[in-house]
Write a structure and sequence with these properties.
Blueprint: E1 2-11, E2 16-26, E3 31-35, H1 42-50, E4 55-64, E5 67-68, H2 74-79, E6 82-85, E7 92-96, H3 97-111, H4 119-132, H5 137-141, E8 143-144, H6 150-164, E9 168-172, H7 180-193, E10 199-203, H8 208-212, E11 217-222, E12 225-230, H9 232-241, H10 244-248
Helix pairs in contact: 6-7
Length: about 250
C-alpha cells in the first residue's frame, strides 16, 4: 500500500539532512509504529509524505497504491488517500466543524472528479460516523478545535479520518498531551477504522499507546534511518530498556 525506498530529505532553511535513507513498507490492513529518540526524524517523515513546505526530497521514492506521492501537490496526496493527523491540531475560529468536514470531503471529491455530497446526505453520514465513534453532537456544531481539550482535538481528527476514509493514515504523536482515558478513546476510534483496505503509520515516543493500538510491526528510527524492525514485543523492549542498547548497535 505504502512503499518508501531509500528516502532522503533535508530541511531547506538550514540545509540540514534529516532523513538518510528510509526504507519502509506498510501493507493493506496493517498498523505500523515508528519509535525513536528525539531528533531521529520521525515527524520529518510524516511532513515529507504529506508535502509540508520547507523540506526537500533529495533521493528516494514514496509510492501509495501505485501513485508517486512525492510528485503530487499536498491536496492531490490527500485525494489519493493520504491523511496526516497532527501532533498539535490547529484551531480554526469561525469555521464550524461540519462545514469544515463537508468542504474537505467535497474538495477531495472534486480532485477525483466525483460529484459533491449534498448537505442532506452529509448530515446523515456524519451522524452515523460520530455515533460510531461516541462523539457528542455538540462537538460537531462548534468551530474547528476551538475550546477543545487535547483529547477532543484528537478525537476530532479521528472523525475526519472516518469521514474522508483515507487509504493511509499517518498519526504523528497522536498520544501527545493525552491522559489515559483520552488515549483509550482515541485508540478505540482508530481501532474502529482498521480494515483490510486501510493502513496506519503511527509515530509515537511511548509504548503506552501501543497497549491499546496494537501494531503489526514496530520500526525503530535513529538518525534518519530505520535501524531495527520487529513485532509489538520490540516496543515493550524499548519501554523497559530505553534506546541505549539499540543506539550502541548502530554504526
Amino acid at each position: 500500500m505504502l512503499e518508501i525506498k531509500n528516502l532522503h530529505a533535508k530541511l531547506e532553511e538550514e540545509d540540514k539532512v534529516i532523513l538518510k535513507g528510509v526504507d519502509l513498507t506498510v501493507g493493506a490492513g496493517e498498523v505500523h509504529a515508528i519509535m525513536g529518540p528525539n531528533g531521529s526524524g520521525k515527524s520529518t517523515l510524516s511532513y515529507v509524505l504529506s508535502g509540508r513546505d520547507g523540506y526537500e526530497v533529495t533521493e528516494g521514492s514514496a509510492v501509495l497504491s501505485g501513485h508517486d506521492v512525492l510528485e503530487m501537490e499536498p491536496e492531490e496526496r490527500a485525494a489519493a488517500g493520504l491523511f496526516l493527523a497532527f501532533q498539535y491540531p490547529v484551531e480554526i475560529p469561525g469555521v464550524g466543524n461540519m462545514t469544515f468536514l463537508r468542504t474537505a470531503m467535497n474538495a477531495q471529491r472534486k480532485v477525483r472528479e466525483e460529484e459533491e455530497i449534498s448537505a442532506r446526505d452529509f448530515l446523515k453520514l456524519i451522524r452515523i460516523k460520530a455515533d460510531k465513534l461516541s462523539i457528542d453532537a455538540d462537538m460537531l456544531k462548534r468551530p474547528v478545535n476551538v475550546g477543545f481539550s487535547g483529547g477532543e482535538k484528537k478525537r476530532n481528527e479521528i472523525l475526519q479520518m472516518a469521514i474522508l476514509e483515507p487509504r493511509m493514515c499517518i498519526l504523528d504523536e497522536t498520544d501527545s498531551g493525552l491522559d489515559v482515558d483520552a488515549m483509550k478513546l482515541v485508540a478505540a476510534g482508530v481501532n474502529a477504522l482498521r480494515d483490510d483496505g486501510r493502513g496506519f503509520l503511527v509515530i509515537t515516543h511511548y509504548q503506552r499507546l501501543l497497549n491499546h493500538l496494537v501494531p503489526d510491526v514496530v520500526h525503530i528510527m535513529v538518525d534518519g534511518r530505520i535501524v531495527r524492525v520487529g513485532g509489538k514485543e520490540l516496543a515493550l523492549e524499548v519501554e523497559e530498556n530505553g534506546y541505549s542498547g539499540i543506539l550502541e548497535g548502530v554504526s
